[in-house]
Amino acid sequence: MKRSLKKLPALLALLGVLVLAGCSAKVAVPNEADYQMRSDQYVQMLVSMDAATLETEIDSLESHYEDFEQQVALYPYIGGTGQKFDFTAEAYLSMLSSYAANLDEFGAYVGVKEYEGATEDSDGYLTYATVYEFEKHDMRMSLQYDQDNVVITATLDPIYSTGEIAQKAALNTLIGMGSVFVVLIILCFLISCFKYVHMAEEKAKKGKKTEEQPKKAAPAAPAPAPAAAPAEAEPELVAAITAATVTADTQLVAVITAAVAAESGMSADGFVVRSIRRRSGNKWKKS
Q: Where in the cell does this protein reside (predicted)?
């Protein structure tokens, strides 16, 4: 059992090699110089164009892509050479776009660094890779050919050092973990706010129940206590009351004197009213 466990890593490594070999195997091609020459020509064409020219060419191809695709398909008949265009429309546009996207990563062109050779996949497509030296980063060009030696896939990638790869990996890890922590903090904040939402709902329910209950009549306000009579009246108030009483009695006496004089035919100067008393059998009382 222990021996089997010791052999397990070696078996896994062999399996991985077999899988990779099944996907693509490096092969020797008799006309390798032709693939090298074609790769060099394509690179020379790319480095001869500046960024503005590249953008103009890419925009023109994208805006007239269907026409360009049809022209590529009919190239042998239009050109009259009987040879097909080296690229499919998609591969040619992909090569230009890939180089333009990484132009700042490459810098100035130096020269050919290494012809890595050709590999063949299970579908019989041949891929030829070449490394070109630039000032900032080297570039690996991989061109995939079909059975008619037409480029159907083109990739141009910068080659980074181990330190740069580790730095990018650390940065990606930091960004990923930071994003996760930010999302977790936001979720914790939202969850902590749920209790306030619940409290607001309960408060609203209690307020609604209170409004539905009949309002009780408010108790009557107590009657104000009678003001205490002053112990002694003010002198001015007493004098005013006395004067009013005397004036009223004088007027009453005058009225009665005139009435008696008119009834008896006597002059008002002939008698004097001394006092006035109410009698029960008063003739002046109306029935």
A: Cell membrane
Q: What is the pLDDT of residues 210-239, one digit of tens each?
A: 776 665 545 555 656 555 544 454 566 556
Q: How far apart are CA 148 and CA 161, in angstroms?
A: 36
Give the integer Cα–Cα distance in Å for 145 and 153. Answer: 7
Among 154, 118, 160, 132, which residue's Cα sits nearest to residue 34? Answer: 118
Kindly report the pTM of this predicted structure.
0.54
Count CB-CB contacts under 10 A for residue 141. 22
Find out whether 2 and 94 touch, Cβ atoms under 8 Å. Answer: no
Identify the pLDDT of residue 115.
94
Contacts of 161 (CB under 8 A, 6+ apart): none
What tokens were used for 152?
Answer: 């159907």
Token look-up 């030696």 returns 149
- Secondary structure (3-state) at 265: coil
Count CA atoms within 13 Å of residue 143 on its CB side. 26
- Answer yes or no: are the C-beta atoms of 141 and 41 closer than 8 Å: no
Assess contact for 129 and 146: CB atoms under 8 A.
no
Q: Within the chain, where are the H helices?
A: 2-23, 32-47, 51-63, 65-73, 75-79, 89-101, 103-106, 162-192, 194-212, 235-264
The residues of the chain scoring below 50 in pLDDT are 17, 19-22, 217, 229-231, 233, 287
Backbone phi and psi for residue 265, each to the nearest 5 degrees, phi listed first = 80, 10
Sheet holding 138-145, edge to edge: 24-27, 109-121, 126-134, 138-145, 151-159
pLDDT of residue 262: 73
Q: Which SS3 state, helix, strand or coil, does residue 281 take?
A: coil
Condensed to tens digits (0 to 9), the pLDDT of residues 253-273 reads 777 777 777 777 776 666 666
